[in-house]
Amino acid sequence: MQLSKIKHSAVFIAIVGIVLFSAKAIMVKLAYQYNVSSLHLLMFRMLFSLPFYLIILYFFTPKLTHNINRVDYLWLIFFGFIGYYLASYFDFLGLQYIKAGLERIILFAYPTLVLIIGRVFLREKISSKQIIAILITYFGVIVTFSGELQYNGEHILLGGFLIFLSALTYASYLVGSGWLIPKFGVLRFTSYAMIVSSICVIIHYLIVDRSSIFQYPYQVYLLGLLMAVLSTLIPSFLVSLAIKKIGASNFSIIGSIGPVSTILLAYIFLDERLTFMQLLGAIIVIIGITLVSWNTSKNLKNL
Where are the transmembrane segments (predicted)? Predict the structure, then answer.
């Protein structure tokens, strides 16, 4: 019973974190209506969230229970650099050229990338149930976005390539976080990673831009604050906690709910149409998530 509760709570935490992260794409598209640059928008997201991570790191992180060496800190800096700086920057750039819906189907390549990276670098096995779950969820996402694939944009190839780079860097972060979180703890690892990412964004701004960030209407700053709290601060801890409980591979498959939540949010806030095929695809994706949840329960019972 206790293991079942752990499984259900972990899956629920993962889903909430994924849905909140998915809302970021909607906020980015809304902010682009005010002609804000992708770098400035990323700056607002990180600057508004940075004070929260500093407070959490100073006041709320428990003492380390593992021996941490210099190499561990170097890996943490590396994964903070690629996970919430590079991945976010590529994503923000790509969203300038393609729809939020199409962004999600390309970004959804990361579950497969997580499994491949884990297999190549960590020699983790890919179970038959994980393969089945991936096939089901991929099929659901393809059905969901069948209409979006016909989207014709002038820079669609560039946008798609940037989003794929975002998926690749985010997958690398997930694999690394699954290895480092047990050493640092959820709060400490997430806070350090986000602080590193914020510093990277600031350095990027100082090197390549330096234009005024105080020239936009209040809606841009409000969206930046919402992204910082609802789509960065809260889900970053939820995702780290979920990865700690069920592993990066299972979390990456559950992440298939992200495209579905983006469809619904885009329909509500961006007036993107919701078709029968999209609803059908959403149901198929949920079936895949249920399979992962059942598989996680079996794994926990075998512990």
Answer: 41-61, 73-93, 105-122, 131-149, 155-175, 187-208, 220-243, 250-270, 276-294
Q: What is the CA 26 to chain-centroid distance, rounded?
A: 14
Angle between helices 186-208 and 87-94 (to 10 degrees): 60
End-to-end Cα spacing for the chain: 14
Please state the rounded mean pLDDT for residues 226-251: 85
Q: What percent of the chain is modeled with pLDDT above 90?
A: 29
Q: Each residue of 42-75: b (16+ CB within 10 Å) or e? A: bbbbbbbbbebbeebbeeebeeeeeeeeeeeeee
d(CA 53, CA 66): 21
Cα separation, 274 vs 101, in Å, equals 11
Compute the distance between CA of residue 197 and CA of residue 258 in angstroms, rounded to an integer: 22
Structure tokens at 43: 């700056």
Residue 124 and residue 285 in contact, taking contact as beta carbons nearer than 8 Å: no
pLDDT by residue (tens digit) across 139-188? 877 776 665 555 555 577 788 889 889 989 988 888 888 788 888 888 88
- For residue 70, what are the contacts with CB-CB under 8 A and spacing of at least 6? none
Residue 150 has what pLDDT?
57
Cβ-based neighbours of 153, under 8 Å, separated by 6 or more: 97, 98, 99, 159
CA distance 2 to 60: 27
Structure tokens of 174?
A: 């997930």
3-state secondary structure at position 147: coil
Residue owning tokens 């800096």: 77
